[in-house]
Amino acid sequence: MRHFGHIAPEVRQRLFHQEPCEFSADSPARLLSVALGATLYSPATRPRLADDIVKQTGRGVVSMVLCLEDSIGDEDVAAGEENLVQQFTELAGRGQEDLPLLFIRVRFPEQIPDLARRLGPAVRLLSGFVLPKFTEERGIPFLEALTVAEAASGRRLFAMPVLESPELMYRESRVETLEGIFRAVDKYRERVLAVRLGVTDFCSSYGLRRAPDMTAWDVQIVASVIADVVNMLGRADGTGFTVTGPVWEYFRVQERMFKPQLRRSPFLEGQAEELREALIEHAMDGLLREIALDQANGLMGKTCIHPSHVLPVHALSVVSHEEFSDAQDILRPERCGGGVLRSAYTNKMNEVKPHRAWAERTMLRAEVFGVAHEDIGFVDLLAAGIPD
Known about the structure:
Layout: H1 9-15, E1 16-18, H2 29-35, E2 38-43, H3 49-57, E3 63-67, H4 77-94, E4 101-105, H5 111-119, E5 126-131, H6 136-153, E6 158-163, H7 166-169, H8 171-187, E7 196-197, H9 199-204, H10 220-233, E8 245-248, H11 265-269, H12 273-281, H13 284-296, E9 302-304, H14 310-315, H15 321-331, E10 340-342, E11 349-351, H16 352-369, E12 371-372, H17 378-385
Parallel strand pairs: 2-3, 2-9, 3-4, 4-5, 5-6, 6-7, 8-9
Antiparallel strand pairs: 1-12, 10-11
Helix pairs in contact: 5-6, 6-8, 8-10, 15-16
């Protein structure tokens, strides 16, 4: 599979200076952690889940979480498990190879080896499990269960812990909790693909809910937690992990308090004013702003609960030609000794040593999401990727 693989090859050639790479569930973890992109959540109880997965594949989705936790009622867990087994078996029988990376969000550690066993041969479609309310104490049993399931199934299985516990919100316990989480994920580093943020649960601790014209970064008590998570778990010194962006809850806005946040000029240049209006109508201007702030603060990818959120995440993850040019210049072998140089776009300073980690991260994102042509912006990528 590949990002933007759902659009025609000739359209990709028009959009990309360097096209997104192909990857599979067997690709290196470092690449997959970035390739997750917009991870679409779906309740495990959906009766036509196999069809849904195939449909979303055709719309550019490359990672999905099938949820047995918060998205379904307590009384539906057994039925959800049974449905997952049936739907995975049906999906495996179709022989389709370009399916998204599929993860199951469980409630209890015991579900991990049990589901891996019940899936039988269809376990080959499974990439791993999402671990809820992760702390060191609660998380270690999940990671131990994952190790057991991996050995029994013969399948490489990843974990994606979700950080959403009140201990992370409360100032007096945050640092100790984060230190414990780091010990747990560091011990099982080869199995932890990414760390996810449960911002809805963070807000719940204080009875908060952000409005559609506010981002998670506007809720200061939430932003402080995310910043501390990135500080301790997202470092660029080789000890860090991919930390994904929080969920965006809205798909349509009936009434708004503040002005839309999308500037008109990029859409006029691309003759896409109708697209701008549609994005505003469906609360996407807030989503686009949050994605930009996620990336500026060290997050990669995003949890999504609606298919319409996927393309904006992917479009804003494409590396611009200017970013690519800067990263290439910084990483040239002859620059290894450091120094300062003017960018090829003659609009900024590139300082080799301080900007090196950024350049390396940018080149990995370029490999996964591609590099846009010099005259291509995110509006062009959005417009090209919208299904007919």
